[in-house]
Write a structure and sequence with these properties.
heterodimer, A: about 625 residues, mainly alpha, two-stranded antiparallel ribbon, about 75% helix, B: alpha/beta, Rossmann fold
Chain lengths: ~625, ~375
Amino acid sequence: MDLTTVAQLVVSGLTIGCVYSLVGLGFALTLRATDLINFAQGELVTLGAFIGLSLLGWFGLPFPITFMLTIAIVGVVGVAMERAVLRPIIRRKGPMLNLLIATLGLSIALQAMVLIVWGREPVTYPPLFSIDPVMILGVRAQKLNLWIMGLGLSVMAVLQYFFKRTLTGVSWRAAALDPVTAALYGVNRSRNVALTFGISGALAGGAGVLIAPLFFASFDLGHSVLIKAFAAAAIGGFGVAGTMLGGLALGVIETLAAGLISSEYKNIIMYGLLLAILMFFFRPDLPAGRSAGDGVRARLRGQTLAKRRLAAVSVMAGLLWLTVPLLAGAYEVRVMNLAMVFGIAVLGLQLIVGYTGQLSFGHAAFFGIGAYTAAILAMKLGQPVLVTLPCATLTAALAGLILTPVLRLSGHYLAIATLAMGEIVFLLINTLKSVTNGAYGLYGIPAPGAFGVEIDTDEGFFVLASLVMFAVLFVMHRLTGSRFGRALLAVRENERAALASGIDATRLKTQAFVIGSACAGLAGGLYAHYSAYINPNSFTFETSVEMVTMVVIGGLGSMVGGLIGALAVVAMPEYLRWLAEYRLIIYGGLLVLFMMFLPGGLMDVVRMAVLRLQPNRLRALKAAPP
Amino acid sequence: MTVECLKPCTRPIVVLSVGLSMMFGVVSPSWAEDSVKVGMVGPLTGAFASMGQSQVSGAEMRADELNTAGGRAKISLLSEDDNSDCNQSANATVKLITQGKVTAIIGADNSPCALAMVPLTQRYKVPQFTFGIGSAITQQGSHYVFRVAPAAPQQAKALAAFVVNTLHKKRIAVMYSDDEYGASMANGMKQGLSALGMEPVASEVFPRSDQDFTGTLSTIKRAEPDALFTTGSYTASALIAKQAKQLGLNVQILGDTGNATPKYAELGGSAVEGAVLVQPFAPTDPNPKIQDFVTKFKAKYNRVPDGWSAEIYDVIGMISDAVAASGKVDSESVRAYVAAFTPEKPYQGVLGAWSFDAKGDATFPLKFIQIKDGQNVLLGP
């Protein structure tokens, strides 16, 4: 290994690192000002790339002017987004997770819009500079890379100056540290938040114009740097200077790992390092006292239905559900089967997120572990479903137990740590070819069977999945209604207060996490048997996000709500298919609207319907003090 | 206890009820009775939509031709978008078979999704035609699946032989995406080289979403290759070629059927000039049959057809022939008719003479093309 190559790699790493920093800064700023992970940040990058392309191509503007104009335009888009969507949700004091899903909806809708306006094919940027390399001490550097580094670093310098030296910047920092005290000193919070979204948008737009010439302008451009930009922000502790350094370090490490060690392991190395940094530097000494479920009203059960009625209604609803295959066709049954499989996983996630308030972006990893365990046992050892499903459940629970140290982290650090964990599991599934067959996946997984009966029809699976789902639901119902469940709620509402009342929060969180992972494993096992073919791509970050969406759409802190959410998220793309390209705009838009107007999720609709049927109870609840 | 949203709840109820009525009051189009219904599953949205679009165009063109000519059972096409999500491909398959009552089904276009459909088409006994290249698709023991494209090992092996024997390259490096597609191709290339007593000088995998390949390329550069085979997507391949040039890695670029779209040359620009690609179909092929197809396709869709359109164009022809031969609209007879093609008695289509082996893999005459001045030029077989 000669020094020139290393220097070469460092230059490339710094270039891509600049991009991570710029996008990551947007994350860090919105997070500091509003406690929000803005998923739409990536799409603002894409928007910047295409607006820049149009300015260059249609109006023939020179590059520096294009750069400035794009920054301004995307900044305005950022402000508009905050005004139109996020502010109303913040004003209603919706839980942080609702905001998160709203930004996810915005991101899906924005991406679909970019796709419709600019097309789905990647587009090359007009050549800005000659591609003859500049030789600096034997290192080949592209003029473009130097420009990116120059512009990127100067933007960061301006930002640093703004926050350190200007009054607006200082008051912004004050408000981020302590909004209430800052407000007493006359800092206007809503103006501050608008400013934050403006700056974040501008940064994303700038990043878009800078990276698009390096790669291509494509509708998924921003999405591809999203995770790493988020990681950059987390490494930097969500500070301004920290994020800059974090992004640069990430870019250099990633490039060096690919160049010097192996590209196969580069992402495992990166995410492993990220986890280590998080665990080492960002483990709070004291619980933060806030959680992902902040703002969810504590709901005791028995609120909508009297206890004796609940049992009767549940049994009736269950029996009614089992008659569905008699009425519906194979296709509808199939959609419901998938919804139930995801529903079982979501029941577990509901316990982790909805009850305990621990945000997890890695649930799909346990789903995958369960699926692979069941598939391997069934295929290689010929085990029946009565063995494979319990084993899938146990393996996932064990994996959950091994990974519980991440629960020492809280809030956004936990979110990013679970994300890294999920990615590592995905990468391992992909890499351990001898066990998992790598990217090819496992095919020919036998249909579930027991006692000589093979369940190879959609209707048969419906009954199996329903029974498993009812069993899990019942266990969850008993669990959340017990002292354990109440203690989880206490941890969610206020961890410090819970600790003070003698609740062993760490232990409880661990238990909830392990039980939740076990549910995901069980669901994964069912999924493997049902689809007969699995490959690693079914268990990515996207799947995890989808599961969180199910939880929130259904209603945080409600088990039945989680199931309804799973059905809605699985069925929506199926029944919106006729909308073609507009499908994702509608889907994203629906997510946003749900979060704006239905903060309690679909479960609230069910609750209202149930209450309407019992006017007495409704009146009593209305009269009761909140 | 609080019931938080007493008032705001009323509006969402309306939204929800509209949503639910959309869900259950499924719009079921009325399909003509005495026609051959062919279902199509593929991505019509998302990153791979151009593939699904090619599939639809090829099928539509042939169906229109046959229906206009008349004298045969009408072909009606039902298309479902899967957005490259394999759960959706499987759902769409069941929908097309049980609700649409299709005789045959085409798709899915992403290999893993096609693979996920195989158990279903087998269960419902409906012939499935896919141009997914993943080798496992036809290895599940189903008699109902037909691969209408050159399988990954087949094309990678052909490319390996061509590169070594005709281009006289000795040191071949491989870069492949970490999904089923990339792995299949890279493995095929490895097998092809080992059949010639060689092995790749470097073999590096990259995550599908990666856009910066500098690190990986510098590992490749250290192996001093004289040719670089990249596989995964045409976008990634074009980017890799560009970044290789910037690193001063000037080698022969090689690619598979995934790059056989004009978009590859457009994105890669000068970096992919001289690249050699393997494919079953070349629009510049002087063969009058192909030229006729290209002219008609251009007139209808105002773009140059790719191999996918040509493959599906032939599939619709096969299905129509099968129905005409047996005189009944029936999945089983279509399957039997198609399975009976042999190298001695092949199907004569726009792609030349082709047939299927016992597993359902099509055997194709493969061609090699080179990018010259941004155009795909035929190099001869």
